[in-house]
Amino acid sequence: MAKARVEAGTIGGNRDRRPSLVDDAYAAMRDAIREARLPPGYQASEQEIALRLGMSRTPVHEAAIRLQEDGLVRVLPRRGIRILALAPEDMREIYDVIIAIEGRAAELVATLSGPERLRAADDLDAHTRAMEAAQAAGDLPAWGRADAAFHAALIGHARNGRMSRIVQAINDQSHRARMLTLNLRRGLEASGADHRQIAAAIRAGESEVALAAARDHRLRARSELLPLLADCGLTHL
Amino acid sequence: MAKARVEAGTIGGNRDRRPSLVDDAYAAMRDAIREARLPPGYQASEQEIALRLGMSRTPVHEAAIRLQEDGLVRVLPRRGIRILALAPEDMREIYDVIIAIEGRAAELVATLSGPERLRAADDLDAHTRAMEAAQAAGDLPAWGRADAAFHAALIGHARNGRMSRIVQAINDQSHRARMLTLNLRRGLEASGADHRQIAAAIRAGESEVALAAARDHRLRARSELLPLLADCGLTHL
DNA sequence: GCGCGCCAACTTCCATGCAAGATGACATGC
DNA sequence: GCATGTCATCTTGCATGGAAGTTGGCGCGC
């Protein structure tokens, strides 16, 4: 019997192959790093990770190469894999990249055709409403997810695969910091208001306003976050 | 005798290990792709490349993983390595990333301290002068190199490693297109004038002007380039 | 001529072996 | 105590082989 190869028309543009062991190792390690099960600064041998994942060294080694390209680990020749930590300096860098990319993305979305703009704005507003609902319910993790979904949607509607990849990599790097600071943040209302402003500018097709609003939103977020990290004395996270 | 480990204080922040076979394979393949010795669309087996480079399949395979992360090739499972081609759509994406990143970089450089700004502006002006000299001499390749050096310096002075990496990857992807269109371009003078405007804004510490000038420079370049490609019917390069 | 299945050739995926680099403990000389 | 040389151990870099997936050609039935 011929194998039924289901070529699902994946919306996001998924890879069409089923996962190899390398993919498994990559996903497992990436996830473990994001959730800090492999804590920053930890240095593991490939052999050890291979044993833990039930495979040989080869796929772990190849996954480590990909993770190094993503900026999540450093492969030290003949000494193992080190999980990279984030310094405040890194957060400054990361925010500057986000400020640049997300600003341009907002501008691009605001110059889409009328119907596309409306759909994008509706989508963004839905995420903002989810944030506000989570805030009202005191559900901080849900708030964080909705916030992340808003920003992912903003980038997604710009229809630029390279921007999406860049933001994805940057988000992976800063995921731990975001989870940490979620509990410390003030001014959740301000975020919601910013989001509505961005969406409104997009809906109106005012690209310059959208760019400025997205920029300012991230500039403010950074100026709140960096002192927060400094106060806690978090220099490596 | 103890081995003299010369830890050269590399300015750019080089890796501190001497090149492995994987590094050799990566550099050789990247270079071959940039110079189109491995033409876009070409599909090679890892075995074939390994033979050509005089090594076994393993380092070639690992280099291919890195090149895939850089967006230069696609590794097709059990079918080989395909050199990716660039469509006009890709150039649009690439320019939007550059517009975003380089604009922010110019803004950041313009907010450096006085002496640092002056040094950066002097550096940029030197590259612009080199461009104009090359133009006067009719040396188009030299003009292209000086232009690239200007933009690399602009990013470099922003002191953001992540921005540098992003721009580096994007430049690798678009190098072939740039070489092709170098011969077709008009308005070389306009580029020089743009560059001087960017440097002047940085020198004066006018960050908003610097941002706008860098943006407009790239926006104009794109609006000149895309029709050029369309006229030549270059849909995959 | 045309569609279909089968098969040989080709290719990577992954495990494993060997050699060599890196490290830390320990003995040695001062 | 301190610096240094030596060595056992741990670790990866790279080569290679077996297994399995992919492809294109060829013959067969119609």
Explain how this protein is built:
The structure is a homodimer of 237-residue chains. With 237 residues, chain A is mainly alpha-helical. Chain A folds into two domains: 63 residues, Winged helix-like DNA-binding domain superfamily/Winged helix DNA-binding domain (Arc Repressor Mutant, subunit A, Orthogonal Bundle), CATH 1.10.10; 145 residues, Four Helix Bundle (Hemerythrin (Met), subunit A) (Up-down Bundle). In chain A, 69% of the residues lie in helices and 4% in strands. In chain A, a hairpin with a 3-residue loop joins strand 2 and strand 3. The radius of gyration of chain A is 20 Å and the shape is globular. At the A-B interface, helix 3, helix 4 and helix 7 of A face helix 3, helix 4 and helix 7 of B. Chain B binds a DNA duplex (30 and 30 nucleotides) through helix 3.
CATH top level of the largest domain in chain A is: Mainly Alpha
Helix content of chain A: 55-70%
Chain-averaged pLDDT of chain A: 89
Count of structural domains of chain A? 2
| String of helices and strands of chain A | HEHHEEHHHHHH
